[in-house]
Prior knowledge:
The complex is a heterodimer of chains A (328) and B (306).
Chain A: H1 2-27, H2 32-41, H3 48-58, H4 66-78, H5 93-128, H6 138-146, H7 149-163, H8 184-221, H9 224-231, H10 236-254, H11 256-274, H12 279-288, H13 292-320, H14 322-327
Chain B: H1 2-10, H2 18-52, H3 82-118, H4 120-135, H5 138-148, H6 154-165, H7 167-181, H8 184-191, H9 196-233, H10 243-252, H11 255-258, H12 261-289, H13 296-305
Helix pairs in contact in B: 1-9, 1-12, 2-3, 2-12, 3-4, 3-6, 3-7, 3-9, 3-10, 3-12, 4-7, 5-6, 6-9, 7-9, 8-9, 9-10, 9-12, 10-12
Amino acid sequence: MHLLRKIGFYLIALWAAVTLNFLIPRLLPGNPVDTLIGKLSQQGPVSPGLRKALNALFGTNSNENLWQQYVGYLNGLVHGNFGVSVTYFPTPVIDVIGQAIPWTLGLVGLSTVIAALLGIALGTFAGWRRGTWVDSLIPGTTILQSVPYFWLALILVYFLASMLGWFPLSGGYDVNSTTPGLSGDFIGSVIRYGTLPALTIVISSIGGWLLGMRNMMVSTLSDDYVATAEAKGLSPIRVMITYAARNAVLPSITGFAISLGFVVAGSLVTEKVFSYPGIGNALLDAVSNNDYALMQGLFLVITVAVLAANLIVDIFYGFIDPRTRSRA
Amino acid sequence: MSELLLEGSTTPADAAPPLTRTRLRRRPGAKLVTGSVMVVVIVLFGLIAPLFTQDPRAVSDIGLAGPTGAHLLGTTQTGQDVLAQLAYGTRGSLLIGVLVGLLTLILSAFFGIIGSYVGGALDELFSLISNVMLIIPGLPLMIVIGSYVQHKSIFLVAGVLALTGWAAGARVLRGQTLSLRNRDYVLAARVSGEKTWRVITVEILPNLLPVMSSGFVFSIIFAILGEAGLSFIGIGSTGSLTWGTMLANAQNGQALLLGGWWWFVPPGLLIALFGCGLSLINFSIDEVINPRLRAPRLVKLQRKAS
């Protein structure tokens, strides 16, 4: 029952995202087709057929009413038809997305996991040592939290890549000496190019995990059962980890939903700084080229990914915290 | 703004036992003072400095040059004074922050308080809307909306930021209102025939002030970071000057490769410091709302004694 309710909610969220994606270009002022034709006509003559195709895509075609357009749009989505990218013409949007996804998934996924684990571990420690010198580190983490991702990326690029030359300036792998594939060279190059973007994401997102965990630890440590555990003479490490941290970590897991949104947003812009060949870079390319089909496809893919990640966390949460199951 | 926050922080301290109150008071105080000083200094800089600086858009043929007597923070690639840009940029970013803060406050109060107070189907609907908005990633949505509109006013950008940022606050307010609406004094007010809007504004709203001010502060941070991100991508409000547009210009002007640190370090640093100041204020509000967060000193003393 709990699970069905959850899945129902995510389906509604998905429908809302799809519908927003459909309505935004139709409700906002301005005609994307005119913008696009204007852009394309700088490169060469535009055939009337293209205008017609674009009209169909953006719903600026007045022959169909909104409902018919909506049905047609949903039908296209179900068949994986997101349209054709203008930026990478004539590649279909779905292929552009397919090429970009592994990069972002690897980068954001890995750095989020590292940041979460590291942040929770440090937060546990900071909460355990509350009221000592460790507390004076907290203002530092709030600065980290308020630093814009892309600014941190700029700083890291400037000092570590531009001045010291330890890391490459931009890109996802060494284009000149390696070709994508399962070779050691390529993987090494990916790691070398990915370190700085990953470092950016880890540094700027770790503060949230750390602070959340620390505050929950402080709350949990004042609970009676922790005092009992201490009174029984259990070893401090055991009290810290299996008594306090175990319960304190729960809100961090539910907070995953919100933090993931932030991390995705941050990494989208971070990718631009590094010209990393992922979703974010494709999205920003799409924006600067008025490539609306690609943009909308990417928005949907990002949303679906965030929803899916949250659904997995929710199901997982039901297993580790039985209270949520019995309540529903 | 800081007056409102200070007011909020002095109200409900009743949860801590009287013995420890004086001892515990010192810690949130230090955070509050540090945070407020940081925020006030930056706000004053944004309000006053533009009156004294040079024209931020005046182009000169110096090009990218480091800090000198004539240009305290150096110049941009087109010879614009960075200090002047920083002053005007501070003003622009703060304006966006406050605008979004207010809009977010209104939206989250509407969806959070009214739904949970009325209850039933309306509550279900409102909390469904907030949860959906909470989970849909904000920045991609902003990018999609922002890129369809060619000429964006500062109000449009603020509106888009508020639209994608109100949900978290609404959820917190909903939880608080749910616990308040069945308290005896609220029931008494309802039984005595007070109108719904009066119960909400006079009986419930004052008790939500700490939570709302915390949400307000958070949404300012969110807005300034969000605006900076949007401007950096190039879809901020047209012709405005903010911390974000400065960073975008620095990136496009190859400041990184040319070593122009004075161009891109100050705006980001101000964002970070301002955000940090606001977070510190927020912590002290949180400690007021949740007295358990203030417990550390006491617990430590107990442990020493044992």
